[in-house]
Amino acid sequence: MPKAGAVSANIVIGQTPQGESIEIDIKELLATRLLVQGNSGSGKSHLLRRLLEESASVVQQVVIDPEGDFVSLAEEFGHVVIDGAAYAEAEIVRLGARIREHRASVVLALDELEIDQQMKCAAQFLNAMFDAPREQWYPALVVVDEAQMFAPAAAGEVSEEARRVSLAAMTNLMCRGRKRGLAGVIATQRLAKLAKNVAAEASNFLMGRTFLDIDMVRAADLLGMERRQAESIRDLARGQFLGLGPAISRRPVAVNIGSVLTGAKSVTPGLMPLPTASTDELRELLHDNLHVEPERSEFSRPAPRPSVDIEELSESIAHSPASPTAPPPRPERPEPEPEENRAAMLEILNAMARDPECTFQSATTLFQDFTIRCRMKGISVRGLDATMFRRGFAAAIAGIEDPEDERWFDLVNLARHVPDDALAPFYMIARAAMNDEPCPDDMTLARVYGTSSPRRVQRLLDYLEKDGLIVVRTDFSGKRSVGLPDLGVTTAPVEG
């Protein structure tokens, strides 16, 4: 980074309609911040991409990206992409702190989160950077796309808690970030939706095409234009902006934003031929099997396992002819009855499952622990393999104390279609449905799944639903229920 007093680092952001280059002084921008406005389709994201690409080798960059449009910077410029949905709150805070420490350029992608979670995640991330120790106050551009989402002017459909923490973090960034080396670059579709105390801290402006009178008048005021000139903002072409500020120009200047190397994952929709199917064919396609639940042709109810399997095996071993060269028998000790053996094994399984950390241990470690506990009680486990253990242990974790109980017969049969690692969450959902209880929340399912990532739980539910094992339904009030079509049961509705 250039030392204090060094020459300014200028980048070319675009050209005037007459072909003159327009530069942005990055050193000045770090001290004075930037506000970008433009309606959807005006070229606002293209402008941010140009700014980021041209300054990538000059200054550290942190991008808050609600749509995942800037992740392509990673391949060309080495930005580290952080998927906000993949981390817990504490992990996001630690990542934010390490970014200041190691001066990494990053993109925080929030596109897989709902708006409430986006706001909370971005707030924790920004606060962690803001709270870095003084020796880590290195200069960095903090680019926030769709800033009206993170600093709304008024309460909307999001929770008050999410709005409060997000607005506070954005206010800190724009009002107090400069002394900590954080220079806010915020972009919004509408100035009227952006909190005024956040927008007011910017001294540089790039205003793109907008059509609403209230936004045009406010943009003209910020550019120092007379209100009768405000309508000219409506006539700006796509990719053309009016720039003003100490880092850009002392007088309003029209800028055609230059080209970029990377692209967004979203593209402008174009026209394509309409389907050639007739109205009757389309109607049939739309309504085909609309009310039919997923079928599982391979699901069949086998004959019940005989309860004398273990006993017969014990009998055959006890009455097998002894080898003539066999060593002298060991001292006899009382052999527990098969039912006693089974009851003791279930007791051990359920005791192990009560440990809240058990699901975070490997299956091999758990199986070894189980066999040791069995031997200590004089129980033979020669007929039990690791697969049988994993499936029995999954039932114990889900609260099914005895899988061979008659009421669980159909469930255990259906569970043969479920992979071993997904069995415990599936059993837990099924048990809730069979008892007409609410579906366990994501944190509970994550714990029995052996993870701390809610995103992994969502992927698991998606997998089970695509396989026809469950059906997730959310009603208009936001309450979620999960059904098991093969069993004909559904959990009670609960807030998702």
Describe the fold and architecture.
It comes from Novosphingobium lindaniclasticum LE124. Residues 330-340 have a biased composition (Basic and acidic residues). Keywords: ATP-binding, Nucleotide-binding. This is ATP-binding protein. The structure is a single chain. The protein has 18 helices and 15 strands. α5 packs parallel to α7 (160-176), α12 crosses α14 (386-397) and α17 packs across α18 (454-466). The protein is elongated. The longest helix is centred in the middle third of the chain and has 17 residues, at 160-176. By secondary structure, the protein is α/β, with parallel strands linked by helices. It folds into two domains: 10-257, P-loop containing nucleotide triphosphate hydrolases (Rossmann fold), CATH 3.40.50; 337-495, no CATH class.
Note the main attributes of this structure.
496 residues; Rossmann fold; eleven-stranded mixed sheet; 38% helix; disordered N terminus; AAA+_ATPase; P-loop_NTPase; ATP-binding; ATP binding
Query: What average pLDDT do the residues reach?
Result: 80
Say which CATH homologous superfamily of the largest domain is assigned: P-loop containing nucleotide triphosphate hydrolases
Helicity range: 25-40%
As a percent range, the share of strand residues is 5-15%
The rounded Rg comes to 32 Å
What structural category do the secondary elements indicate?
alpha/beta
Integer count of domains: 2
Counted by DSSP, the helix tally is: 18
Q: Which regions are unreliable across 5 or more consecutive residues at pLDDT < 50? A: 1-7, 297-328
Largest sheet: 11 strands, mixed
Would you give the CATH topology of the largest domain? Rossmann fold
Give the CATH class of the largest domain: Alpha Beta
Q: How many β-strand runs? A: 15
What is the straight-line distance between the termini? 47 Å
- CATH architecture descriptor of the largest domain: 3-Layer(aba) Sandwich
Organism: Novosphingobium lindaniclasticum LE124
Domain AAA+ ATPase: 30-220
Region (Disordered): 291-340
Keywords: ATP-binding, Nucleotide-binding
